[in-house]
Amino acid sequence: MPVTLPDNLPAIEILKKENIFVMSQLRAKEQDIRPLKVLILNLMPIKIAAETDLVRLLSNSPLQIEVDFLKLSGHQSKNTPIEHMDAFYKEFHEVKDQNYDGLIVTGAPVEMMEYEEVSYWDEVASVFDWAKVHVTSTFYICWAAQAALYRFYGVKKHLLPEKTFGVFKHTINDRSFPLFRGFDDEFYAPHSRHTEVRKEDIEKHKDLKILSESDEAGVYIVVGRGGREFYVTGHSEYSLYTLHNEYQRDKEKGAEIDIPKHYYRHDNPAEKPISRWTGHGNLLFNNWMNYYLYQETPYDLSQIEMLGNIQLPAEKE
Nearest Cα to 241, choosing from 59, 58, 56? Predict the structure, then answer.
């Protein structure tokens, strides 16, 4: 089944060339089913690339999904045309009275700043608070994961001695958790960050559970409220060349940046990157949509506000 997108969104033509089924809003209105409604707060600097990466994963599902894109009114994107933002993105005041099955909040290039120093912190914190009531399950990525853990639990981030940059091996702490259905015992995921959240800080909170970790990259996936929130410190949504583009961008800026680890064939930037994470990235998003949106959300979206915590698998009869 397709993802329903705003008419003329650039990602539509890109994904059609990859034989990925996407549907315009006009055609979707002719179908008599309720799609899952997913809101994406895109804080990435190159917004069109982030849109395409996420839609590619959302579309690899038998579920029909209707996507809205959200922007912050207090922040003007420097790398995306204003015409694109005006055409395809809504502001928070336009959606705050609505409910959504899912929310995805991307990373942002502000991790070296204290949260309160970020110009749009107050607005993004308001979105986080709103999602606890108006969204069945929220998927926080990278900086957003750290920021939401700080907002809800006071978990602090810590500066790393060097950037965690590359594709790293991970393990699963609870194989019974539905998010990992179909996963191998070990799997890979990209990371690109200068800061971390620490295991000992998270374990102080009984409402949080660490689901996946990496010997090299640390805490990877944390769940809150049984699945109402997922905090994912890496980037399973990245396409094959996203890390390469980040590496080249930083080199061109003259920044001190190491070659992404476990990424290029023979660790040589002149050679093609190795795809190690695509299968598990698709599984991660498919399982989230199936088990924590489709199987948990009420048909009447107005009932989301009455939902409590999603029961953990061990608690289900």
Answer: 56
